[in-house]
Amino acid sequence: MNDHVRPQAVPAPQDRASPMRPNGMGPTGMRASVCPHDCPSTCALEVEVLADNRIGRVRGAADNSYTAGVICAKVARYAERAHHPDRLMTPLKRTGPKGSTQFVPISWDEALDRTAEALLAAEHTHGAQSVWPYYYAGTMGLVMRDGINRLTHAKGYSRFFSSICVNPAWSGYMAGTGRLAGADPREISRAADLIVIWGTNAVATQVNVMTHAIRARKERGAKIAVV
Fold it and tell me: What is the pTM of this model?
């Protein structure tokens, strides 16, 4: 989620009963939401909305079979990050040499003007392809992730195929397995007798996989091998 936008909870669907939105509930309480981070899990969330338009507790949705009430530590502390007093809320301009930590606040208009001036200067001096907007999906919003493509195409800036980090990994995965696909973690808990976790620290970065892997181990005695 954009660091300069206060997170807003998404209300529960109105076409079905929701335990998180009982009749008569006002603007506060637990609301259904979804994690915006660049992660394949796209976890279903239960987010506490407080009276002062802030968020409180963030938990994995218990009634979602994939999330199964579990959420990663990063998202569990979302409220702390969103409302922390040291959170950066305005652009800063460096006034000293790099590493000096000397900055002064500036307005968004000034920050955008300075950015535009630097891009135009590079384009006029070295050509449009000297500018390379390198980015990816810290959050999955269309504006925050993909909006820069409109500027890139309009100005004729240098481009790259998808991302430097994802596509090489996908290419290697498909070369090794034949297709970009894997088991649904819920199938692990239902049917797997041997779970092989290859090339990832699933405890830290694949919390949903581990939720169902540990369930298979506890309930059915499945073995877990980590490579």
Answer: 0.67
